[in-house]
Design brief:
Layout: E1 7-12, H1 17-31, E2 35-43, H2 51-68, E3 72-79, H3 88-102, E4 106-110, H4 116-128, E5 139-143, E6 164-167, H5 172-180, H6 194-206, E7 213-221
Parallel strand pairs: 1-2, 1-4, 2-3, 4-5
Antiparallel strand pairs: 5-7, 6-7
Helix pairs in contact: 1-5, 2-5, 3-4, 5-6
Length: 223
């Protein structure tokens, strides 16, 4: 396994995806001195949502980032569910610029699951992480997102079968605290509730002999 990263980039399709999928890992790494940057690609914007919906989730996200110890963040402000309508060169280019500017060792990106935004952003993020320059990230991981990752059609769509786990036992409560910042997004069980988040982390931990864990699919690791 590679050493602890110096710099980590997390690419989130929407505000709260970064916390649901990697909030414990972000908190753990930030506490260990890792420089963490988050790019939020899309959000609740017109034409499907009123502007104040995005303004609310942006404030919530910034509170969550402070809780987890995120040092840098950016909002691309692409309307939710319309990521696919953004020209590919533009989407790839903007994500690539963020990654190149941050010069991360590790990148965490969304698994291409049921949500169309997640699939398009996964593709663009993989392009941004190609090993074509000296500063390319050496570790690229895909995270799972309640609830979209688990609403896939098994055997037809990609299934999330993780092969790397981060022990977040000491940072589970910080992840919950960060998720609590998203008052407008967290719903009752069984979808994206605090209860479901804790249960998934407990299950992932039980697979690996620790209290709580977050799971990732390896895209690439260069040792």
């Amino acid at each position: 396994m590679t050493a602890l990263p110096r710099r980590l980039v997390v690419i989130a399709p929407h505000p709260d995806d970064e916390t649901l999928g990697a909030g414990g890992s972000i908190s753990r790494f930030a506490a260990q001195g890792v420089d963490v940057s988050v790019l939020v690609v899309s959000g609740h914007l017109p034409p499907l949502y009123p502007q104040d919906a995005f303004d609310t989730t942006r404030r919530e996200a910034e509170a969550a980032f402070r809780t987890m110890g995120v040092r840098h963040h950016e909002f691309m402000e692409v309307p939710a569910t319309l990521v696919h309508a953004t020209p590919v060169a533009e989407l790839n280019g903007r994500i690539n610029r963020f990654v190149r500017d941050a010069e991360p060792d590790w990148v965490m990106l969304p698994f291409p699951d049921r949500h169309i935004d997640h699939r398009w952003i996964f593709d663009a993020s993989v392009v941004a992480c190609r090993p074509v320059h000296a500063q390319a990230p050496t570790t690229v991981l895909a995270y799972e997102t309640l609830s979209e990752t688990h609403w896939n059609v098994g055997g037809i769509e990609p299934s999330f079968i993780p092969d790397l786990f981060v022990d977040i036992t000491e940072f589970m409560e910080r992840k919950i605290e960060a998720l609590n910042c998203y008052a407008s997004q967290i719903h009752e069980a069984p979808s994206r509730s605090l209860e479901a988040t804790r249960a998934l982390a407990k299950f992932r931990g039980s697979q690996n002999g620790c209290g709580y864990a977050e799971a990732f699919k390896v895209v690439r690791i260069v040792v």
